[in-house]
Task: inverse folding
């Protein structure tokens, strides 16, 4: 991240490079790391306005949490790109500090819009430790004692397996995993980047379960999944070392072009499944043309049947969209 600047209208600008970790296939950057770039721009915005995350926690006991991130990817990032991110205040929705993040990138001497994201930030008070100073007045409306917008809990039927109950009768895939400390922050709770990792991994597991794993389509057809849109909203807190039940449900397959799925996560407390996030992700597929370029393709029958919950069938490369 380079030197950043602030404007008199409250907007800030910062240049960000994607992390090398996110360059998994050729030199393209995956959706998770694009969202990481959005988060970094938000933290820099707070820093420029006098609210660095470290100081907020150490002086005021406030943990900075991104609790809603809704990101549209318009142009793919490559590993050596420099993104120019502009962060601006957005209208209050009553769920924390609202911001918009827009990123551009230079391509062949021209500036292209690459990302548009809407973000909510809450400042979660931690009562542990020494007495904290009074929170800054400018943050007052976004300070909370517990994260999330809230959602109706689900009673677990006696003797039922949580994932079996949550996926029953749906075109869905379920996954249970203990939340490790490195998905958490401020000592105990899962942070947004941890949920982004969950979303990325549950997609990978779902596709493998349906017989169309990432590697299978890469090896046999030179196809890769691409993500034009993703969103995650925090509903409640999940804590370190709790088991997170993640359910991935296919909601809509649009012709042979894209599909949209919902991710819901839960923790089990006192016999009740407490929703902690809900989110959506849209996928298409592209064929690798060379080490730099790809183009979108229509789904073939094997992929379409897998997404619709039908037995997989081997077929050809598909047609270019």
Result:
């Amino acid at each position: 991240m380079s030197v950043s600047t602030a404007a008199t209208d409250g907007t800030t600008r910062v240049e960000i490079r994607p992390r090398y970790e996110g360059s998994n296939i050729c030199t393209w950057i995956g959706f998770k790391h694009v969202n990481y770039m959005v988060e970094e721009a938000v933290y820099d915005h707070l820093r420029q306005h006098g609210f660095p995350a470290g100081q907020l926690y150490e002086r005021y006991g406030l943990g900075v949490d991104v609790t809603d991130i809704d990101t549209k990817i318009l142009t793919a990032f490559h590993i050596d790109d420099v993104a120019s991110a502009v962060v601006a205040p957005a209208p209050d929705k009553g769920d924390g500090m609202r911001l918009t993040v827009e990123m551009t990138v230079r391509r062949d001497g021209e500036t292209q819009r690459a990302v548009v994201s809407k973000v909510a930030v809450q400042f979660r008070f931690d009562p542990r430790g020494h007495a904290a100073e009074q929170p800054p007045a400018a943050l007052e409306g976004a300070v909370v004692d517990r994260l999330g917008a809230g959602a109706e809990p689900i009673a677990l039927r006696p003797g039922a397996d949580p994932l079996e109950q949550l996926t029953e009768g749906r075109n869905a895939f379920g996954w249970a995993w203990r939340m490790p400390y490195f998905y958490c922050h401020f000592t105990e709770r899962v942070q947004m980047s941890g949920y982004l990792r969950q979303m990325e991994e549950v997609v990978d597991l779902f596709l493998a379960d349906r017989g169309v794993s990432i590697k299978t389509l890469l090896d046999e057809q030179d196809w890769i999944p691409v993500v034009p849109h993703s969103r995650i909203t925090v509903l409640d807190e999940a804590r370190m070392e709790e088991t997170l039940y993640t359910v991935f449900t296919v909601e809509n397959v649009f012709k042979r072009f894209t599909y949209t799925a919902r991710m819901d996560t839960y923790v089990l407390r006192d016999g009740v499944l407490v929703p902690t996030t809900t989110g959506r992700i849209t996928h298409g597929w592209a064929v690798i043309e060379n080490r730099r370029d790809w183009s979108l393709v229509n789904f073939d029958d094997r992929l379409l049947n897998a997404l619709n919950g039908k037995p997989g069938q081997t077929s050809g490369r598909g047609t270019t969209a």
Notes: Residues 156 and 165 are 8 Å apart (CA to CA). Residues 312-321 have pLDDT under 50 and may be disordered. DSSP finds six helices and 18 strands in the chain. The first strand starts at residue 5 and ends at 6.
